[in-house]
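Appendix B. Chain record.
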Amino acid sequence: MGSSTVNIVHESEAQRQFVRLPVPAEATFDGQTYIVKDLTAGGLSIVDVGRALNDGQAVKVSLFLPFSSFGLTMELDAIVKYYLPSEKVAGMQFTGLTPDQVSLLNHVVKSFMAGEVVRSGDLMNVAARDNFTKARPKKMVDGKPVVELKRQIPGLLLVTILGIVALGFILNNIYENVFIFKTNNASVQASTIQVRSVERGLLTSKIKPGQTTIQNRGEIGTVNGNDVKSPCDCLITKVHRHTGEFVVEGEPLVSLVQANAVPWVQVTVKPEDARKLNIGTKATIAIAGSKAELTGTVDSIKTETNEWGDAPVFPSVSNQVYVIVKPDGKIPSELINRPAHVVFQLR
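Structure tokens predicted for this chain:
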């Protein structure tokens, strides 16, 4: 056999996949027994190999590990990784190891490294227990585990719902700020007539409890025996004074609204909000105590002392603006003085 040069690269301890450990063991294959030079959990090397071995050659190895009071023989499959003719050394890698064989080899190697005595009871315990966690069976749907899909569904639903809610909130804010203006500071109004006392004295009221209407020239009451009468066929909207009360000249006794009066809706807004409105701006009206929803338009915009047209200029002394909304239909007279909710359509 001609001489050949073999290049051997020595790897550091940190680079090794398995720790190589000299142990007093023997390996038998093809009827020949060899001394084990190094043993790892993944393979072994043997010495005094007198015949050539080919790289990748599959062999069946009987590994014998002698201990103080017993011996352990393991039947293993291996492949030849290298053969050094000059040194008569061969290296083999174990293949097809069972979990029990892996556990036993690891235990032997670790015990030798730690300088511990290997006992038969320890090996039996290692062989008896399950040293590997088995993968749980997974049902697959379209290549993905069912459990994984089930776990993802609640999260996806939550993210979707939150996204829809957030989008709805943003769109609603944009709609309310750009396209509409809402206010609850509104009430149904009508032209009011206040009947006042013409002299000082005690009032004797002729208005009965719960009375809501009074005819033209109907008696409202007497003051010092002098009659006070209604100026019209009217609705009684408010009774200011009652029988037995002392009144002075000019003091209001009752507030009346003509029966044929056309009510409107008065809205009180801030000047900065009134700037959003114009004469003719459409509005939707909801009146307390009524299920009907009315429509209307802005008829006038006034401050406390001035009327504002299409191009308003607000007095600096006024911090309230009165917007009169004329309804498209007649508001029932019994709803006069009721609070209302008004939504203006800005666009």
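Further analysis of this model is presented in Appendix C.
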